[in-house]
Amino acid sequence: MTYEVPIRNSLLFRLLITSVLIALVSIGATAWLTVRGTTIAIEQERGQALADDATIQDTLEGFAATHRDWNGVERTVLDLSRSTGRTIILTTRARRVIATSHRPAAERLPLNESAVIDPLHVAPSTDQGVGQAEQGSRIDPRVVGPYRLPAKERAELRQLARDEVTCLYDRTGVHAQIVEEASGRPALRTPRAPGDVVTACASKTLYAPTPTEAAALAELARLVRGCAERNHVRLPEPLTVTMDFQVAGDDSAEDPPALDDCVEEGRREQLAAHVAPAALLFVTNPPRKATAVFDLSPVGTLRVLVTTGLVLAATIAVTSVIAIRLVRPLRALTNAARAPAGRHLRIPVTSKDETGYLAAALNDLSERRERTDEQRRTMVSDIAHELRTPLTNIRGWLDAAQDGLAETDSVLLTSLQEEAELLQHIVNDLQVLADADAGTLRLRPQALNLRELIEQTMSAHQATAHAGGVEIVVHAPDGLSVHADPVRLRQILGNLLSNAIRHTPPDGRVTLSARHVAGTVSIEVKDTGSGIRPEDLPQVFDRFWRAEQSRSRRTGGSGLGLSIVRQLVRAHGGEVTVASRPHVETVFLVRLPC
Question: Class assignment of domain 354-436?
Answer without folding.
Answer: mainly alpha
